[in-house]
Amino acid sequence: MVNLEVNVGELKLKNPVMTASGTFGYGTEFADLIDLNRLGGFVVKGTTLNHREGNDYPRMAETPMGMLNAVGLQNKGVDYFINHIYPEIKNVDSQIVVNVSGASVSDYVAVAEKIAGLDAINAIEVNISCPNVKQGGMAFGTTTAGASEVTRAIRKVYPKTLIVKLSPNVTDITEIARAVEAEGADSVSLINTLLGMAIDVERRRPKLSTITGGLSGPAVKPVAVRMVWQVAKAVKIPVIGLGGIASGADALEFILAGATAIQVGTANFINPHVTMEIIDYMEGYCKRHNISDIKELIGAINA
Amino acid sequence: MKKQLTDFIIRSTQKLTPSCSLLSLEPKDGSKLPEILPGQFVEVAVDAVMLRRPISVCDVDYSANLLWLLVRNAGKGTAALISLPVGSTVNILLPLGNGFTTEGSEVKTGARLLLVGGGVGTAPLFYLGKKLKENGAEITFLTGAKTAAELLLVKEMEAIAPVAVTTDDGSFGEKGFVVNSSVWNQSWDRVYCCGPAPMMKAVAALARNSSVPCEVSLENMMACGLGACLCCVEKTVKGNVCVCSEGPVFNINDLTW
Hints:
The structure holds two protein chains of two kinds. By secondary structure, chain A is of the alpha/beta class. Chain A contains nine helices and 16 strands. In chain A, the strands form four sheets. In chain A, strands 3-4-7-8-9-10-15-16 form an eight-stranded parallel barrel, surrounded by seven helices. A four-stranded antiparallel beta sheet of chain A has the order 5-6-14-11, with no helix packed on it. In chain A, strands 1-2 form a two-stranded antiparallel sheet. In chain A, helix 4 (144-157) packs parallel to helix 5 (173-182) and helix 6 runs parallel beside helix 7 (248-257). The longest helix of chain A is centred in the last third of the chain and has 15 residues, at 274-288. The longest helix of chain B is centred in the middle third of the chain and has 13 residues, at 122-134. Chain B is globular and about 50 Å long. The A-B interface holds A 22-25, 29-30, 32-33, 45, 53-54, 57-60, 62, 65-67, 69, 71, 74, 217-218, 266, 268-273 and B 2-5, 45, 49-52, 93, 220-235, 239-240, 245.
């Protein structure tokens, strides 16, 4: 038997495979296609204090081995989540993580406090890295002062596992990771999307309504693996790795680079079964390499 | 209706116009096709591109267990799909979206229904027309294209119901756009429409002016097809909604057109 269990802070995952915020809805969208109970965890989409309509269409452009998006945190607000979504998903036998976003520190704190009251949710992921909103989001994630301020404020009101999702759009991601660790974050997840842009040359217009957007998909994977490797060496808290994971081998790369758990994002759009395939692959890989506990593989590269 | 991921084998491909091909596909494992409603669509995985390509369902032949897709060469993904040889396997996510209204008091026996298709948008209306006719409605197809050479499925539709045709250059049928057709002089109980957005907006305006209920099928760019990525949104009276999960068919009264 292979033990795939991992812990992210006090959050116990039955396996390291989670889904990334904004790519998996509230889980229910995929319930026809996969068994949600098999997932280590799933991160529900970015939730803000108030309803947000998001950005104008077009919000998406496919690029080589990737896609740009500019959704802009469309969601119905935290109260809608609590009253209408939470009751539908709270009995799923997997760790539900709520991705928390805000335009101000007080917004983040208000959402975190409300989510803290939900028994079936043992962790939040604080989004200080969304490139698609004008206020908040990435503005907090690109300076150590901003990242520290948000983390410190949320830590005061949120007693369960606090994960901070980091932006790759910085000069040195390890500085930000160390800053949020110092303020009491239990884990960091990385990377959010890379700021990008695409132009329709015939129309001479940007492909996104917002001109720039977030790049995701296999195209970003080498950047993500590098950043996970750097951050895992720089902090003591567990790292959750994501960015372009589309197969079991991709997921293992992140674990070998130092990630304790991984998130699958854009690949859910391409192959809705991908998370199940990754879990199966991990189990097969461990058997093939005589590994009894997947934790032995965390950061285990021969470099 | 439960969604599924299924491998299909391409059983036939037929080039109908320079840019459009009609494909028939059968589940590879021999399983029965799921129930698919007129107006629903599928997402086809193609190796040439990363994201699946959404294609509306042109027909479903349950007795032969064949799914029919009319595909327009609109870029790298669809070009690769229509050039696949017969016998190739493609993975399909289906059935997706809501579908047109085919039941209820407005489409009862004897109801006069106009089905307006522009270009490849004719595809879902063909399947819809068959279904509505089975239900006893009196249907008429109206289809438009730039030229006679680009008209799609005219003979196939004629086998079901009267077909009015417009071409931009007058090379077949009446000259002009679908909104210039003389069929609009008749009275209709309901209009269904699928085609390029400017055409659908013009048809919606005509229907609204004569107070005829009208449904349109949108084809906003999308990724997941499941309502998760929130990329394909359309502004509606309820705010931004996903075309893939709350559409692709909308009553024009719910849109902000």
